[in-house]
Amino acid sequence: KNEVEQSPQNLTAQEGEFITINCSYSVGISALHWLQQHPGGGIVSLFMLSSGKKKHGRLIATINIQEKHSSLHITASHPRDSAVYICAASLIGNQFYFGTGTSLTVIP
Amino acid sequence: KAGVTQTPRYLIKTRGQQVTLSCSPISGHRSVSWYQQTPGQGLQFLFEYFSETQRNKGNFPGRFSGRQFSNSRSEMNVSTLELGDSALYLCASSSAGGGYTFGSGTRLTVV
After folding, report:
1. Contacts of A94 in chain B (CB under 8 A)
2. Rounded to a whole number, what is the largest CA-CA distance in chain B?
3. Is the dihedral of CA B79, B3, A96, B68 positive or negative?
4. Which residues pair with A57 in a beta bridge?
5. How does pLDDT run along chain B (111 residues), one tens digit per residue?
6. Is B73 helix (H, G, I), strand (E, B) or coil?
7. How far apart are CA B9 and CA B22, in angstroms?
8. For chain A, how big is the Rg over CA atoms in Å?
9. Cα separation of A31 and A43, whole Å?
């Protein structure tokens, strides 16, 4: 069993749609991270959460510590949002566990 | 400010050789962590260094090692390369309590 589970694995959306990507984890964490990886490999850290909710532009990340669940929402999706989104759990001591990623394609 | 710099960007090595990858963190960041990404296993944590000390290590064989210098730059070394070591190697730097900034990675191909 993976310590971090993401769903869905693949997601195709029409431009403008509201998108949700889910992440569940089974370990005690110090923080939950959402990463974005574009073709070519570069990774950008979108959010680091230990509680509640964070918003950056059209991106919103939430976490429920009791349920060990986090969601990444994209409002008014755009083709440039097409990327792989990866959820990662960091434990005390900075050990990381990664989800397998959600490949998002936004069609114009 | 400058981002995290990884060198080289691409590397081709032969089985049995060794390789050293370099990571220069964002100025002021004292923590550097390393990750391996393969199509089969996804992203996996290798190790993390803080103030020249390895703080944590993932589940990789001893052929994978690293170090950090007094200026926080870090190197990762893989000895006796195997075909399965072909991967994208990423490093990230962070400050205390801050988020992580990733480098663009080094793509290693072992032939």
Report:
1. 31, 33, 48, 55-56
2. 40
3. positive
4. none
5. 678 999 999 999 999 999 999 999 999 999 999 999 998 889 999 999 999 999 889 999 999 999 999 999 999 999 999 999 999 999 999 887 777 889 999 999 999
6. coil
7. 10
8. 13
9. 18
Cα three-residue angle B61-B97-B107, rounded to 5 degrees:
40
How distant is the Cα of A72 from the closest Cα of chain B, in angstroms? Answer: 17
Chain A hits for B48, Cβ within 8 Å: 94-95
Tokens of B10: 């691409």
The first and second tokens of residue A44, run together, are 């950008």
Task: Mark yes or no for CB contact B35/A35 under 8 Å.
Answer: no
- Report CB contact under 8 Å: A100, B42: yes
Whether residue B102 and residue A96 make contact (CB cut-off 8 A), yes or no, is: no
Locus of tokens 């979108």: A46
Chain B residue numbers with beta carbons less than 8 Å from the beta carbon of A93 are 55-56
Output the CA–CA distances (angstroms, integers) from residue B7 to A23, A103, B10, B22, B27, in the order listed. 32, 27, 8, 5, 17
